[in-house]
């Protein structure tokens, strides 16, 4: 396989030959062209939302009909005529659209915020702040399926779910749509006369056509800054200021009690809570939640993590992903960390009970959360506050006595963000503060957790040259405080490793009651141009930088520099529609100026004339030093390695789709790994779709860390022996998704992921001496290391929007986990063991009711 990669990937160098016949005429950037203007007309006549523009008021509205293709024929007029009209009254903005079409109109049913897929769509993008940075998007397809999103520059956040209405109709000449968007769902200034940014977008699925009312050449930076204008708006009212969304949840758990003597099977419970939206003004909103519930959220996939760093999981809870753009800070940072990682709020408890016979909860209860966000003149502001409960686990002693143990203290989380914008959104400076404060009422939590954790930062972004050039950066400071035991434990964690014996710049301070640090990032980029793009950036992260109480950072003690250069061709040719070639180089050192990572990468991506996509790359990681391999011990050599990647996918418009991804690594030390993922998609009906993605991976490493033991006589590694073992790992997983949609407001989504993984260890060996990658047999004893993990995680969610803004969820989750001390991989045996494991089943029925008094 590696030989195949080595022969195939260099073909990227011959793209100019593959693209013979490629046209060189593209759309030339013209940032001086006037912006198109759409006109809104106030109406006093009622608009009946039925998908037919039959009311006389529509005839009085000016028509916007000039649309320009971005794909597939950039710069040419849209292939089909589109007519857009805009009306408004005291409470609503109305958009009426007639989409002429000489071909078949394509629609697909799906739940709200479904992927675009092969369907036709029409979108209304509204920059109601007119800050040229943020817009609210409202999309609909011919069957009435809605998508809504917040757009930040050229990034979409589909987590936003406002309450709005749209109706569609299909006829022999095309299709029509009527929008009714409440002003209460938008944010805008208090000015008497309004001028908003506006963009109308049309997608014709069968042609892969994407056309917009304001042209956006690919050689320029597109998105919100390029939107046209909507005028004619005056004397707007923000609408009703309060929205209430009370909910009730009925839960039934059928869970194996195991060693928990306090758990009953089945276990039933009823809870409730409240979501609140309060509009303090037309441009400032307070969102609050009391006792939020996330029973309908998709489960995280199972992983086997034997590495030194924590696994990062995406946020899936609506409470935190809705409007999260307000708190974005230090975007595009080269350091790889972030100050606000919302998964910290409501995480699994940090402590374990004294015995396994206990009832530790899966997550910490969020008592309440509030978020204030909006704009005050040129300032964008956001403030988030959350309080989590003190969690206590009951446990039973060996003598049969029952007691309780605090596994997570009462805690308060706060994030504040402010950003001042200049030059019509082309520049900004901003700041952020975060804090975590805990009530450490017991000795156990005082010894493990920080009493307080604070972080603050400043960031900037500046575009010039008609937004072709960009510079950005940030500086962050952190400080955590607590007991000497807690701070000592922090210094010894994997993102710090202050205990490294051969690090001249690090030392564990066992008397410290606080730890402080900083992170600095800056970069300059060429982000527009017909062919050439690039970026150069650097970062510093001090050893004491610690933000993991509310943020996410995998390692500190780094000095990084990275550069990239891209050549792209967007003009379609005979063979390729578009292609690009990117070279990346990166170098990392620690604060002792020891090289810890250096690599160069050549990557390429292309789209063929029949819309197949192909991405492949080759990377060379050069020999360096590894200050993490021994888990706080001395430096080791990091052997060089090659990495090869290939990803391919078929035309997404087709009823049957195929994807393939292969990743392989070849180490100079004799280690290797490879993984292959294939995905199959079926959507032969407009009402359902199925995707199946099997993954197979294998790995061999000559030295997997096992443990370290004290031995004062072994001075070569500073009085400790660092024990490793060779490891063969084999894993097979299968991600399956089946979605069925019965109407635009009623859908069923299912997800399942079985995982079989074996970890087969060889004989234990010890690390010989610093700055080498050499091992000899270990003459001590280690516990049995081999194990097999059999896991199944899945859920099914029936979602029904039973009235405007109100939803009923019926969710079922199942988990099966089995760990056996086996080591070798046997698919038949492990499959039987997985399905022979008793499952945990949880059924949740959740109903909320939207009130707008």
Structure notes:
The protein is built from seven helices and 43 strands. It has a 24-stranded antiparallel beta barrel. Strands 1, 2, 3, 4, 5, 6, 7, 8, 9, 10, 11, 12 and 13 form a 13-stranded mixed β-sheet that branches. Strands 19-20 form a two-stranded antiparallel sheet. The protein is globular. Helix content is 5%, strand content 50%. By secondary structure, it is mainly β. The protein starts with a helix and ends in a 5-residue tail after the last strand. Strand 35 and strand 36 form a beta hairpin.
Describe, in short, the structure shown.
By secondary structure, the chain is mainly β. Helix content is 5%, strand content 50%.
Which key phrases capture this entry?
853 residues, single chain, mainly beta, globular, 24-stranded antiparallel β-barrel, disordered N terminus
Helix and strand topology:
Elements: H1 2-8, H2 15-18, E1 37-42, H3 56-59, E2 68-71, E3 82-88, E4 92-100, E5 121-127, E6 134-140, E7 146-152, E8 155-157, E9 165-171, E10 174-182, E11 193-204, E12 209-212, E13 228-234, E14 242-254, E15 267-281, E16 284-290, H4 318-321, E17 366-376, E18 379-388, E19 391-396, E20 402-408, E21 411-422, E22 427-438, H5 443-448, E23 452-464, E24 469-481, H6 484-492, E25 514-526, E26 532-541, E27 558-569, E28 576-589, E29 595-608, E30 613-621, E31 624-626, E32 636-638, E33 641-649, E34 656-667, E35 672-682, E36 688-710, E37 720-743, E38 746-761, E39 765-767, E40 775-777, E41 787-803, E42 806-820, H7 827-836, E43 840-848
Parallel strand pairs: 1-3, 1-13
Antiparallel strand pairs: 2-12, 3-4, 4-10, 5-6, 5-11, 6-7, 7-8, 9-10, 11-12, 11-13, 14-15, 14-43, 15-16, 16-17, 17-18, 18-21, 19-20, 21-22, 22-23, 23-24, 24-25, 25-26, 26-27, 27-28, 28-29, 29-30, 30-33, 31-32, 33-34, 34-35, 35-36, 36-37, 37-38, 37-39, 38-41, 39-40, 41-42, 42-43
């Amino acid at each position: 396989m590696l030989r195949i990669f080595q022969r195939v990937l260099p073909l990227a160098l011959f793209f100019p030959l593959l693209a013979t016949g490629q046209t060189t005429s593209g759309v030339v950037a013209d940032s001086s062209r006037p912006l198109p203007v759409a006109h809104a007309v106030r109406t006093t006549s009622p608009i009946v939302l039925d998908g037919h523009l039959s009311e006389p008021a529509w005839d009085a509205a000016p028509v916007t009909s000039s649309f320009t293709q971005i794909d597939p024929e950039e710069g040419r007029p849209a292939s089909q005529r589109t007519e857009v009209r805009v009306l408004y009254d005291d409470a609503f903005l109305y958009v009426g659209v007639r989409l002429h079409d000489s071909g078949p109109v394509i629609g697909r049913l799906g739940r709200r915020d479904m992927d675009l897929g092969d369907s036709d769509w029409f979108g209304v993008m509204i920059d109601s702040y007119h800050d040229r940075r943020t817009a609210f998007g409202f999309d609909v397809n011919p069957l009435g399926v809605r998508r809504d999103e917040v757009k930040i520059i050229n990034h979409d956040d589909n987590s936003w779910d406002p309450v709005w209405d749209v109706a569609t109709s299909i006829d022999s000449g095309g299709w029509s749509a009527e929008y009714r968007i409440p002003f209460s769902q938008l944010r805008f200034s208090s000015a008497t006369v309004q001028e908003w940014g506006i963009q109308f977008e049309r997608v014709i699925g069968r042609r892969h056509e994407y056309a917009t009312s304001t042209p956006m050449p690919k050689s320029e930076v597109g998105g919100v800054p390029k939107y046209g204008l909507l005028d004619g708006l005056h004397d707007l009212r923000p609408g009703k200021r309060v929205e209430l969304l009370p909910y009730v949840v009925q839960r039934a758990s059928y869970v194996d009690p195991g060693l928990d003597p306090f758990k009953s099977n089945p276990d039933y419970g009823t809870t409730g809570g409240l979501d609140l939206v309060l509009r303090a003004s037309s441009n400032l909103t307070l969102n609050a939640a009391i006792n939020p519930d996330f029973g309908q959220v998709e489960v995280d996939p199972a992983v086997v993590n034997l590495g030194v760093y924590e696994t990062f999981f995406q946020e899936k809870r609506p409470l935190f992903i809705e409007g999260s753009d307000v708190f974005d800070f230090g975007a595009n940072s080269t350091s790889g960390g972030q100050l606000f990682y919302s998964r910290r709020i409501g995480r699994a408890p940090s402590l374990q009970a004294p015995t396994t016979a206990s009832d530790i909860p899966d997550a910490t209860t969020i008592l309440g959360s509030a978020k204030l966000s909006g704009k005050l003149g040129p300032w964008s502001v956001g403030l988030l506050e959350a309080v989590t409960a003190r969690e206590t686990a009951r446990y039973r002693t060996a003598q049969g006595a029952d007691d309780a143990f605090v596994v997570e203290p009462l805690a308060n989380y706060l994030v504040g963000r402010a950003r001042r914008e200049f030059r019509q959104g082309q520049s900004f400076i901003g700041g952020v503060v975060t804090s975590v404060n805990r009530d450490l009422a017991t000795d156990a939590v005082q010894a493990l957790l920080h009493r307080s954790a604070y972080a603050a930062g400043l960031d900037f972004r500046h575009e010039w040259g008609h937004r072709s050039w960009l510079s950005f950066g940030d500086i962050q400071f952190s400080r955590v405080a607590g007991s000497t035991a807690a701070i000592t434990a922090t210094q010894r964690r994997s993102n710090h490793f202050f205990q490294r014996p051969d690090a001249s710049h690090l030392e564990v301070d066992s008397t410290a009651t606080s730890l402080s640090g900083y992170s600095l990032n800056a970069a300059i980029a060429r982000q527009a141009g017909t062919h050439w793009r690039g970026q150069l950036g650097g970062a510093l992260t001090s050893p004491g930088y610690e933000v993991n109480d509310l943020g996410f950072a995998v390692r500190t003690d780094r000095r990084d520099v990275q550069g990239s250069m891209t050549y792209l061709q967007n003009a379609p040719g005979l063979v390729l529609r578009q292609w690009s070639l990117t070279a990346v180089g990166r170098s990392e050192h620690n604060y002792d100026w020891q090289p810890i990572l250096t690599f160069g990468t050549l990557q390429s991506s292309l789209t063929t004339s029949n819309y197949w996509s192909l991405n492949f790359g080759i990377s060379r990681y050069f020999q360096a030093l590894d200050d993490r391999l021994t888990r706080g011990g001395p430096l080791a050599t990091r052997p060089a390695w090659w990495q090869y990647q290939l990803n391919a996918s078929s035309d997404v418009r087709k009823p049957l789709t195929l994807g393939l991804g292969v990743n392989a690594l070849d180490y100079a030390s004799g280690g290797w790994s490879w993984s292959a993922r294939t995905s199959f998609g079926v959507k032969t009906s407009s009402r359902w779709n199925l995707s199946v993605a099997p993954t197979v991976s294998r790995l061999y490493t000559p030295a997997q860390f096992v443990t370290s033991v004290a031995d004062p006589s072994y001075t070569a590694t500073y009085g400790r022996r660092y024990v490793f073992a060779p490891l063969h790992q084999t894993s097979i997983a299968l991600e399956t998704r089946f979605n069925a949609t019965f109407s635009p407001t009623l859908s069923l989504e299912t997800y399942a992921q079985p995982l079989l993984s074996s970890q087969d260890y060889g004989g234990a060996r010890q690390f010989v001496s610093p700055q080498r990658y050499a091992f000899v047999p270990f003459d001590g004893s280690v516990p049995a290391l081999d194990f097999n993990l059999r896991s199944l995680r899945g859920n099914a969610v029936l979602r029904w929007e039973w009235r405007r803004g109100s939803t009923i969820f019926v969710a079922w989750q199942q988990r099966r986990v089995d760990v056996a001390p086996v080591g070798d991989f046997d698919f038949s045996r492990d499959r039987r063991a997985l399905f022979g494991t008793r499952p945990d089943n949880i059924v949740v029925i959740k109903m909320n009711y939207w009130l707008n008094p």
